[in-house]
Structure formats: C-alpha cells, structure tokens
Amino acid sequence: MKKTTILSIFVLIFSGLLAQTPQRIVSLAPSLTKSLYYLEAADLVIGHTTYCHIAKDDDKEIVASAVSVNVEKVVTLRPDLVLATTITNPETIEIIKRAGIRTEIFPTASSFDEICEQFAQLGEMIGKSDVAEKVISESRQIVEETRQAFKGHESLKFFFQIGARPLFSVLDNTFMDDYITYSGGRNIASGLNTGTLSREFVLVNNPDVIIIATMGIVGEEEMQIWEKYPTLSAVKSGRVFFVESDMACTPNPPDFAKTMQIIRQKLIE
C-alpha cells in the first residue's frame, strides 16, 4: 500500500513537470528556431517564419514573414510557448499574450558569453538543459582553441561588412565584434555610434582583413568592388573573404564556433 502511494505521488509529480514543459512551440525568429534545432527540439516546433531556413524541409506552419506575424494563425495553432526577439513588434507580442499564450522574449545577445547564457536559458525552458550544457561546452572548447591559435600572431585591423547599400559594419558591444577581438584583431568601426560607413572611411582606415557576410549577388559585387583597390591592405594580402550570413549573424553557440573556425582557416592556416 505504501509503495503504491509513493509510486502514485511520483507519477503525479512527473506528469506535472511534463505538463509544464512546452510541447507545442512557435518561433518568431530564425535565430531561435535554429537554437531549438540545435537543442534537439525540432519535434516541438509547430510554427516558424519564412526565414527559418533550417526548418524549410519540415512539415511545419509558416506563421510570419520578416516583418509581420499572422497572429490569428499563431493562436489557431494552440501553442503552449511562443518565442520571439525584441525585433518583433511589441503590439503583436501583447496580442499573443492577451490570448493567454505564454510568450518569452529574447534580447539580441551582445557577446559570445551572453549567447551561451541565452542558449542555456532556452534549454532549461524547454526541458533540454542537458543538451544545452553539452552544446555550450563543445562550442566553448572550439572557440577557446581558436583564440589560443591567434595568440602570438600580428594584431590585424578588421572591417566586418554586414550591409552594402549603404555599407554597414559590425560595431562594438555586439556578439559579432567578438569574432574580431577573439581573433586578436581591432575593429576599424570601434567607437562609432552607427554602423553606416562610407567607402572612403574604409579606404582611409585601410583594414588588413575584410569579411563580407553573404548577401547574394550584392555580396559578390562588393567583393569585386574591394578588389578594384589593389593597394588596400586586405586586398594586397588576399584577406578579403565571405562568411555565411545565416551562420555568422545568427546568435547561437555552434554557429559562433563554426564562424571562428572559418576565420582561423582563412587567416592563419
């Protein structure tokens, strides 16, 4: 009788925990959708945006574009958790919350450490803390090995281009600036309040490295434009190269680590 009572209590507690763990998730940000997949939680995702490329081959509902959310569709899917970033319209978030749906907002991470913190937070939120810890540990190891590889090498000036019309640069106090500092480099846009630059500014600062986040045909055009300046240090030394924007611009531990590996391969291997 006593054993039966204990077993019943255990079942009740386990059922309660399971009920609290989200089983139907809608993601309103490509970065969060990617994180869910890295957390081995693809089966929990029931809706995502048109830009969530990692989920494009799965049979899941499209509930948002790059600029707008189909709130009616979100509500109809009956999610028990909606994930969004601060980019999502606050009014949209309020409407979803008023429908009684749990909604969690993630601000844009400002560093690699913050990326790891948010990833761990998401893992805990969906019952995947063990997976999150493993992914973070592996990513941190890769990043640290890469940082060590750059020690003893010349400190280079970087221009990390993430926009073309107008030119747009990675700024201080962003997770993407960590790509530069972890590579032992200096950002030519350091100290600026806006990422919008003129081409003259870049030429005057004469970066040793130009990294271009892929932008389709526009990115190819940018590469060709920079190569027209043979005296530019980055061009002269063959240090103008692409990184995949879907990887480098997406704040999650594995993608950050992969981007660091590519930078290492291009510059010191």
UniProtKB/TrEMBL annotation:
<feature type="signal peptide">
    <location>
        <begin position="1"/>
        <end position="19"/>
    </location>
</feature>
<feature type="domain" description="Fe/B12 periplasmic-binding">
    <location>
        <begin position="24"/>
        <end position="269"/>
    </location>
</feature>
<keyword id="KW-0732">Signal</keyword>
<dbReference type="Pfam" id="PF01497">
    <property type="entry name" value="Peripla_BP_2"/>
</dbReference>
<dbReference type="GO" id="GO:0071281">
    <property type="term" value="P:cellular response to iron ion"/>
</dbReference>
<dbReference type="InterPro" id="IPR002491">
    <property type="entry name" value="ABC_transptr_periplasmic_BD"/>
</dbReference>
<dbReference type="InterPro" id="IPR054828">
    <property type="entry name" value="Vit_B12_bind_prot"/>
</dbReference>
<protein>
    <submittedName>
        <fullName>Iron complex transport system substrate-binding protein</fullName>
    </submittedName>
</protein>
<dbReference type="InterPro" id="IPR050902">
    <property type="entry name" value="ABC_Transporter_SBP"/>
</dbReference>
